[in-house]
Amino acid sequence: MFASLSGRTAVITGASRGIGRGIARRFAAAGINTVVASRSAPEAQAAAAAIAAETGTPSIGIGADVSTEAGAAALAQAALDRFGAIDILCANAGIFPAARLGAMTGAEFDQVIDTNLKSLFLTVSACLPALTASGAGRIVITSSITGPVTGYPGWSHYGASKAGQLGFMRTAAIELAPRGITVNAVMPGNIMTEGMAEMGPDYIAGMAAAIPQKALGRVEDIANAALYFASAEAGYVTGQALIVDGGQVLPESPQAMAEMG
């Protein structure tokens, strides 16, 4: 039985929809106060209101562009103003527009790196004093199998950002260990979210066919992994990345899938 996390406070970026919203909902169900952050304040507030109504745990929505220092600082201050603490930071903000090399512009590359990678550094920096004061701070990063393990045409900038998150994680875990802060990452495979639905049924069917479990994952699968990293029981785990993908990265070839029977 895990120790209760009730009364602790988590900041979750990119949490108005998809995996981030699933993490916020799962955390709130465990009694964790949640700060739902999104570029869109109305979307963040709507998500927070729904989570609070569903779980009975306090949740607030904050509009913040965490790819900027001002946005990250404002988010941390809003969490402290409302709850007086930040015990957990889930760095989940991310975008994945497709653009192939030769057509991708520098501005498009920068947008993905700023949103997915720079925002990680900025939110950690902004929340660091409060995470230190917590005495058992937790940083949970939403990375991906794309970049660190696999690749996909059109996502070289996305893959670079997600691989970069893991490089950041390893050194941050060393630097922050004396403060009692752990830094870990969840690496989702293909998860059924609103963004995935926008890829279309043919893409979804093709992805499911490449997964040994023959199905896309659920946001709850990622949220449960994030909750473990936020727990007291994970206090001796830091600098680690957990793949949650239904076995997608395991087959060495299409033939391996065909031999499953």
SSE layout:
Layout: E1 9-12, H1 18-29, E2 33-38, H2 41-55, E3 59-63, H3 69-83, E4 88-91, H4 106-134, E5 138-142, H5 156-176, E6 182-188, H6 194-197, H7 201-209, H8 219-230, E7 241-244, H9 254-258
Parallel strand pairs: 1-2, 1-4, 2-3, 4-5, 5-6, 6-7
What do you see in this structure?
With 261 residues, the chain is α/β, with parallel strands linked by helices. It has a single domain, classed as NAD(P)-binding Rossmann-like Domain (Rossmann fold). Helices cover 47% and strands 13% of the residues. It contains nine helices and seven strands, in the order βαβαβαβαβαβαααβα. Strands 3-2-1-4-5-6-7 form a seven-stranded parallel β-sheet, with helices on both faces. α5 links the parallel β5 and β6. α1 packs parallel to α2 and α3 runs parallel beside α4. The longest helix has 29 residues. 44% of the residues are buried.
What's a quick, concise take on this entry?
This protein has a single domain, classed as Rossmann fold, CATH 3.40.50.720. The protein is 47% helix and 13% strand. It is built from nine helices and seven strands.
